[in-house]
Amino acid sequence: MKVIEIGYGDVRKVRVGRGEQLAFIGGPCAIESRDHSFFMASEIQKICRQLDVPWIFKACYDKDCRSAPDSFHGLGIEGGLRVLEDVRKEFGVPVVSDFSDPAWAAATGEVCDLVQVPAYLCRQTSILKAAAKTGRPVHLKKGQFMSPWNMKNSVRKLESAGCNQVILADRGTFFGYNMLVNDFTCFPIMARTGYPVCFDATHSIQLPTSMGNISGGQREFIPYLVRAAAACGINALFMEVHNDPKNAMSDANTVMNIKHLENVLAQAKAAHQFRLEMLDKFGEDNVHTNE
Amino acid sequence: MSIQMSKRVTVADVMLPLSGFPVVTESIMLKEALEKMSDQRLGIACIVSSDGVLIGILTDGDVRRKLLTVQKPFSAFFVDDVIVHSAKGPVTCRPEDSLADAIEIMGSKRIWDLPVVKDGGRLVGLLHLHPAVQALLGIAK
Known about the structure:
Chain A contains 9 helices and 15 strands. With 291 residues, chain A is α/β, with parallel strands linked by helices.
């Protein structure tokens, strides 16, 4: 498995891959304002420093897959990227945002240390090519409609466009209408591409558009899924956090209250550490179908 | 051509050139390898490293045996790297080997194809039973 190094310039580099510390990709779902992003970054940084968890700040400048036409869409590319650039400089942390239009890729890559391909767009050739051309590592989310093995096609599209720095994430798979389920066999399957894997905990507990014009969520299951995913053998953990989830401008029903971050992240780190110790003690898993 | 005469015929005289049979890299999908085999109407694909060294073969028989044992969905089976389902260290022959000796090997191993390699294991051709027998019978085109 490749180890992906995230961060250019003066920010603290984050290495994601086998044998590395569990990396945390986290922040508010959307950039709500410069002040809010700074506040969130400051709070998360304190926790990550205390726990010694490598961290990448996540916040998006344009939320293009909201359920309703009048839902908050984001600060926009120009203002949003300016905020991310400032967060990056102020906190010395790598930053990531997704982008939903190939035309936004270059500008996103100029600022962000990691560019993210949204799950709904994970097989769009134009998006993948544009992501690859940024020259930055790509955080590729598995579509809720995709099998983990078919993500190989998306990885090939990235590779054919010159990208060989990829992290593959699971954010749940459609289980009927308005419902997601996590199949953790997706991690070893996606890892067979040779790239690290990430668990997106807060989107996994989403109930997509279950509330008519917005998505619901079952936050109470976040800690359970996080522990299970870390024990399974992920390389990075993705969670959206907010200081006031009820009033969050995006994904209010799924973002986790930041008051729980230290607890959940500490457990994730401990489970990951235990997994690494088991690897040392017992070696790689070596059970096969036909034996 | 008599069997005796065929001792003078070498594998190089009869083998298919690299362009005449499926040659694939190890990370190609199983599905893509099977498509190449169907396109070229041969029951074998030779898997080579980036420098052209033979590292395995995939045959119709390998796939048949896998179908009896693989438990995952076909859609997952299809996207596996071809090398995962291949036979490593296949029997081979060399271009200068006599055709009769090569056919004898094919008979004893009950196989239809023999990859042809040069020094260092570099793949240079494939001996397929049909043209080999045609040559043996003196009816080669």
